Amino acid sequence: MIVKPIDMPLVIRQAFDSDSDLLTKIAFDAKQTWNYPQEYLLIWKDELTITCDYLKTNKVFVAEVNEVVVGFCSIVTV
């Protein structure tokens, strides 16, 4: 497969408190693409919910294309 470069600028930035609801939606949507049973999503609710406290205690980065959040990642110390 040949991968063509994206002509849209990708911006990586630190997540803001105001991103928490959207990041939570992205986390749940990502899990749902794998067709997990709804019961699993309920079990994982706390782990998939991105709170302002989570953003303060972990390194969370957001990927944006044309100022639209398209994904995120977090680095957690265990």
Cα radius of gyration in angstroms: 14 Å
Overall strand count: 3
Helix-strand sequence:
EHHHHEE
Figure out the total of helices.
4
List keywords for this structure.
alpha+beta; 4 helices; 37% helix; 78 residues; globular; 3-stranded antiparallel sheet
Structure description:
The protein has helices at 20-32, 38-43, 45-48, 52-57, and strands spanning 10-14, 59-65, 68-75. It is 37% helix and 26% strand. A 3-stranded antiparallel β-sheet has the order 1-2-3. The chain is built from 4 helices and 3 strands; from the N terminus they run βααααββ. The radius of gyration is 14 Å and the shape is globular. A hairpin with a 2-residue loop joins β2 and β3.
Chart the SSEs and their pairings.
Elements: E1 10-14, H1 20-32, H2 38-43, H3 45-48, H4 52-57, E2 59-65, E3 68-75
Antiparallel strand pairs: 1-2, 2-3
Short précis:
The chain is of the alpha+beta class and about 80 residues long. The protein has helices at about 20-30, 40-45, 45-50, 50-55, and strands at about 10-15, 60-65, 70-75. Strands 1-2-3 form a three-stranded antiparallel beta sheet.
